[in-house]
Amino acid sequence: MQNIPVATAIVVHGGASSGKDLNDGCERAAEAAAQVLKAGENGLAAAIAAVLVMENDDRFNAGTGAVLGLDGDTIEMDASLMDSRGTLSAVAALRGVKNPILVARDIARTPHCLMAGEGAQRFARLMGHKPYHAVSDKARKQHAELIEELSSDKPAMEGVDNDDFLRFWNYVASPAFGGKKGCDTVGAVVRDADGHFAVAGSTGGAAPSLLGRVGDTPIVGSGFYAGTEGAVAATGVGEYIIRQTLASKVYHWIAGGMDLHQALRQGIALIPSGVDVGLIAVSKTQAGSCSNADMPTAQM
Predict the structure, then answer these.
(1) Does a structural domain hold residue 142?
(2) Domain of 216?
(3) In a domain, 168, yes or no
(4) What pLDDT, in 10s, does the model give residues 146-171?
(5) Do 99 and 124 touch, CB atoms closer than 8 A?
(6) For 131, how many CA atoms within 13 A lie in the half-sphere containing its CB?
(7) If you write DSSP's letter for every residue of 247-298 in order, what string do you get?
(8) Among 293, 286, 265, 280, CA closest to 51
(9) Phi and psi of 297, rounded to 5°?
(10) In terms of C-beta density within 10 A (0-12 exposed, 13-18 middle, 19 or more buried), how is residue 37 classed?
(11) Is the bond preceding residue 218 a cis peptide, omega within 30 degrees?
């Protein structure tokens, strides 16, 4: 029996509400993934390649463009990957590296699925990831705007009292404010020539947030999911995405026969209006994206 090649598919996002002016960065990421597939590598390698491009573009909230914590110094990042061949790994609250997605890739070689905090950083050094702590001009500008916003009566995070960040302050530095920035992630989903699926994602965290906050990006079934029927990645305000286990729900709707685009729309509808959220997905026959905010994307 002759094997018939499967049509490949790549969808990339640059974060809910990040703006369409970042579409060019997503297009470069998708092209990097396409080149990996053309070289005969699998979907997971392609998804990682796409995310790596965006981690190295400081316009995105991932890697080099990660947002600053409320203390104006701390950066904590998350990343994840999964494919239909059984690979699953993630890293959370990681500091001091340039490319969290590569640390997540290395974790896949260990007995574990998820590593966090100091242990993850020590592991990164063991695997050869050099110390890195650079703050982009965009991140510094956003931090200044955020501190000003937290000092006002306007909520900096949907549905949260600004005073909560003072009440539960757990940074070493003292708070610099008296009283919605950066909930973005980057992600990629891929269907490779063998018909396998993969997803990879990375985020520079959310602001405002308390020290040690972890969002949906490294939580399997919430920010990402891949199986034999497709792959899904979510972006937006993680606390809402986690409560819905959003990526898993959308995946299982698609696996159950629902049209992919309908599944994406139905997933977005689970999140309250006014809360930014986006989804991308690939299945055996379809690929697409959907968001209630201005989300940069690319598809090949």
Answers:
(1) no
(2) 9-134+181-299
(3) no
(4) 877 777 767 777 777 777 777 777 78
(5) no
(6) 0
(7) HHHHHHHHHTT--HHHHHHHHHHTSPTTS-EEEEEEESS-EEEEESS---EE
(8) 280
(9) -145, 165
(10) buried
(11) no
235 is catalytic: no
pLDDT string in tens for the chain (300-residue length) = 344 456 999 999 999 988 889 999 999 999 999 999 999 999 999 999 999 999 999 999 999 999 988 888 899 999 999 999 999 999 999 999 999 999 999 999 999 999 999 999 999 999 999 999 888 888 888 888 887 777 776 777 777 777 777 777 778 776 766 544 455 799 999 999 999 999 999 999 887 888 899 999 999 999 999 999 999 999 999 999 999 999 999 999 999 999 999 999 999 999 998 899 999 999 999 999 999 999 999 999
Report which residue type is found at 232: V
User: What is the CATH number for 187?
Assistant: 3.60.20.30
From the candidates 8, 64, 185, 217, give the one annotated as an active-site residue: 185
**209 CB-near residues (< 8 Å, 6+ apart):** 69, 70
CB atoms within 10 A of CB 83: 23
* DSSP state letter for 168: T
Helix (H) or strand (E) holding 199: strand 197-203
Q: Phi then psi for 225, rounded to 5 degrees?
A: -165, 140
271: in domain: yes
Number of domains in the chain: 1
